[in-house]
Amino acid sequence: MVFDIDGSVIELERGKSILDAVNILGLCSDTLSERPLAAQIGGEVFNLSYTPFRDSSIHLLRYRDEEGKRVYERTLEFIFIIAVRRLFPGARVCVRHSLGSGLYLTIDKQPALSFAEAEALNDECQRIVDADVPLIRKRLDIKEALAYYEADGQADKAKLLKWRKFSYFDVYTALGYMDYFYGEMAPSTSYVSSFKVHYLGGAVALLMPSSSSPDAPLEFVPQPKLWQVFRQSDDWGRLMTCSTASELNKRVEDGSVHELIRVNEALHEKAYSNIADKIAECRAKAIMLAGPSSSGKTTSANRIATQLRVLGLDPIMLSLDNYYIDRDDIPADENGEKDLEHINTLDIARFRRDLVSLTAGEETEVPIFNFMTGRREKNGRILKLHSDQPLIIEGIHGLNPTLIDEHIRSNDIFKVYVSALTTMNLDDHNRIKTTDVRLLRRLVRDFKTRNASMEHTLSMWASVRRGEERWIFPYQENADVILNTTLHYEIAVLKKYVYPLLLDVPPESPWFCGARSIVKFLNYFLDASVEDEIPPTSVLREFIGGNTFYN
């Protein structure tokens, strides 16, 4: 057989693996930045131990690749769980959510995890890594998998598998333990060369390296505001008995999803009301509202405005998008492309002057940007704020301090960060990434409002994510309040809009891998046709349609 591996061609006898070819070609490396973690054939990701059965063109995935990073994360989680089971038999590990440079995991044991025990876990993980234990992938009959997880005390995974539509289940095994993370892992434990177990008072942050410098784990940077919002989402999940895919499926099946929607939306309304109370209390003249793509910024700005009106105020809405410079004036990067996420696409000087003028109560002409022509209109919009008219300014760069003139008093500005920070899990060991939920929202919205194909939206997502990492996430802790717009029921609603379309993405498409990743976690959710229950002001309406703020 002939393998073309990233341009290097090699002929091997049938039965040889991708890893065999990688070793012969000398493409392996001791550094994580260069070491292959998995392989992509067509649009599908494979373990390096996979044996192709025909001539193949193969692309190696490394840590700098999004899917390579996911392979690394799954492998590290697998090693960590084995370490916990070795040191603390019977303890329950739950992968909760991302936290800064790593993952937040809880270890349910008595007595609670101590600092010394967290250090011991770090050392045990390192011993497992140093042992270079092979991670063996195998396929089980679904009944066999269910029997194993029930006998092993993993009721969460057993409950989830009962919703699986397929007759088989793929697992990885090592050191007498068997688990699966709904995606591929590295060939052996030694591939996880860079990590750290950081103690967090009875729980841990499992730290990983950055994509740009992967050969050492990042230091832990506390993000107390973000962590508090994740904790609130966890609390809401427990309150509504909807923390996992199986719990949501049960609600869809028995009809109690309608009550779930009502309670979930009421919790959202209460959150918006609380923010409005804080804004009114501090008498802010301008509310800067920012967040990543598909976080529900526009709906959130309008719902805060509604709550401020309840308090007797008359807010004025202003979008940062109107401060875009003319498209022709945006410089191209080294690849000849224009980065529309860059803050320099905004007329920063004009915005700073206008904000000073507006908060001083002066009559001000603010610009209007025409997205059809890609240029600013000749005449703008005249605004003059009265004492009862706070200005709500929405845009992805809203929390960037560059936008605020030094002459504006800090008390005059109230900063809101908006994002969809889901804490719903498939099971104890498999979280649903917040970025995946936002991507699901965007796929639905782009298809419904712009007739955009799944491949078109998927092709833009990497660029969107790079912009978020550079221009949005670094400023989230600067917010006065962080608003979580995730809805615990939304995946069951969003699924039916795009699931068939994602299945139609062909294997030869460069975006098949991204489509397949979403399909794999959607396979575990039931559809919910409950649009009649979803309020017209719901954040979800921003994506599925019917949002009255847009009428």
Give the arrangement of secondary structure elements.
Blueprint: E1 2-5, E2 8-11, H1 18-24, E3 38-41, E4 44-46, E5 56-61, H2 66-87, E6 92-99, E7 102-108, H3 115-130, E8 136-141, H4 142-151, H5 155-161, E9 168-174, E10 177-179, E11 196-199, E12 203-207, H6 224-239, H7 245-254, H8 257-282, E13 286-290, H9 297-310, E14 316-319, H10 348-359, E15 364-366, E16 369-370, E17 375-376, E18 381-383, E19 391-394, E20 413-419, E21 425-427, E22 430-431, H11 434-450, H12 454-471, E23 481-484, H13 490-503, H14 512-522, H15 541-544
Parallel strand pairs: 1-5, 13-19, 13-20, 14-19, 20-23
Antiparallel strand pairs: 1-2, 3-4, 3-5, 6-7, 7-12, 8-9, 9-10, 11-12, 15-18, 16-17, 21-22
Helix pairs in contact: 2-3, 4-5, 8-9, 11-12, 11-13, 13-14
Descriptive overview:
With 551 residues, the protein is of the alpha+beta class. The termini are far apart. The strands form seven sheets. It has a five-stranded mixed β-sheet with strand order 2-1-5-3-4. It has helices spanning 18-24, 66-87, 115-130, 142-151, 155-161, 224-239, 245-254, 257-282, 297-310, 348-359, 434-450, 454-471, 490-503, 512-522, 541-544, and strands spanning 2-5, 8-11, 38-41, 44-46, 56-61, 92-99, 102-108, 136-141, 168-174, 177-179, 196-199, 203-207, 286-290, 316-319, 364-366, 369-370, 375-376, 381-383, 391-394, 413-419, 425-427, 430-431, 481-484. The chain is built from 15 helices and 23 strands.
